[in-house]
């Protein structure tokens, strides 16, 4: 008979762990929780180390938001086509929206990576470890969020160079980084959920391209919500990107924001995203 150290996770089996979050009852030992958190951090670190081998994606992904700020932002600032709350410069109003957009564009295709891991046999090996499926998804989701921080820094620096008055409060900057990570985590979970339904890279690419721009244009990233037609306002209110942009504007440029509601929506959406992606993971792994 073999013995198991107190607080250790059970040995690996051929059956994958359950969806994850519901697997931790209230009386779970602290040592188990710490080990689970350690595995999530390790999985996140493994994902981030891939950037060291190929930084091309970071450079190419930064081009689009730079063009949005330099061309779209500067042009619409000159013609005063879009009225902004409080009369703030349009470029300042646009910068947080472009920041959120760049994070969205990174995260929405994150499911391609997990399909590649399935094809390479890596996902099957991860599925038979004792790590819960939700921990696997969470590690990947927050790795996508940390990747987005790199582009967020580029956009913040560019915005400052263009004369946008952003906050220099370190606490607000840290909170804005947390908002970007949460938003990216949700959209990467959405991408991994779609991967579990589409099962192929080509289908995922098609679906991702089909929903990316509607998500962007139905949010408040480019224009205030009150300028939208009624049906678009209704869509904007259920679009998590709108809450991410609202929080970033409040933190970075000081516009009135509903930070408590924004945080609740983003955290709730991320939890639901992790749960959905974890439930669909076995279908993708088959």
Characterization of this structure:
This protein is mainly alpha-helical and 286 residues long. The chain has one domain (30-285). The chain has eleven helices and no strands. α2 packs antiparallel against α3 (90-107) and α7 runs antiparallel to α10. The protein is globular, with a radius of gyration of 20 Å. Mean pLDDT is 80; it is low at 1-27.
Q: Would you report the number of β strands?
A: 0
Oligomer: single chain
Beta-strand residue fraction: under 5%
What is the average of the pLDDT values?
A: 80
Spatial extent as radius of gyration: 20 Å
Separation, N- and C-terminal Cα atoms: 33 Å
The DSSP helix count reads 11
Largest sheet: none
Helix content: over 70%
What's the overall geometry? globular
**Total separate domains:** 1
Would you list the SSEs in sequence order as H and E? HHHHHHHHHHH
Q: Low-confidence spans: pLDDT under 50, at least 5 residues?
A: 1-27
- Alpha-beta content class: mainly alpha
């Amino acid at each position: 008979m073999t013995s198991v150290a107190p607080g250790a996770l059970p040995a690996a089996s051929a059956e994958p762990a359950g969806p994850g979050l519901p697997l931790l009852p209230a009386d779970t030992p602290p040592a188990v929780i710490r080990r689970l958190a350690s595995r999530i951090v390790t999985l996140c670190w493994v994902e981030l180390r891939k950037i060291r081998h190929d930084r091309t994606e970071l450079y190419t992904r930064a081009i689009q938001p730079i063009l949005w700020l330099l061309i779209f932002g500067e042009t619409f600032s000159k013609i005063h086509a879009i009225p902004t709350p409080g009369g703030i410069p349009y470029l300042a109003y646009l910068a947080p929206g472009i920041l959120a957009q760049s994070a969205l564009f990174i995260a929405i295709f994150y499911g391609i990576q997990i399909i590649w891991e399935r094809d390479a046999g890596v996902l099957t090996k991860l599925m038979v470890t004792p790590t819960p499926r939700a921990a696997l998804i969470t590690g990947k989701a927050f790795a996508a969020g940390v990747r987005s921080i790199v582009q967020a820094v580029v956009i913040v620096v560019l915005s400052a160079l263009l004369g946008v008055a952003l906050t220099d409060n370190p606490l607000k900057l840290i909170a804005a980084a947390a908002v970007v990570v949460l938003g990216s985590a949700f959209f990467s979970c959405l991408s991994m959920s779609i991967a579990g339904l589409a099962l192929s890279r080509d289908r995922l690419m098609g679906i991702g391209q089909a929903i990316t721009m509607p998500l962007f244009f139905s949010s408040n990233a480019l224009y205030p919500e009150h300028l939208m037609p009624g049906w678009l306002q209704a869509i904007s209110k259920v679009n998590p990107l709108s809450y991410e942009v609202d929080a970033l504007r409040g933190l970075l440029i000081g516009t009135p924001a509903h930070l408590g509601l924004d945080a609740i929506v983003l955290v709730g959406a991320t939890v639901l995203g992790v749960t959905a992606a974890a439930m669909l993971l076995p279908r993708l792994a088959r």
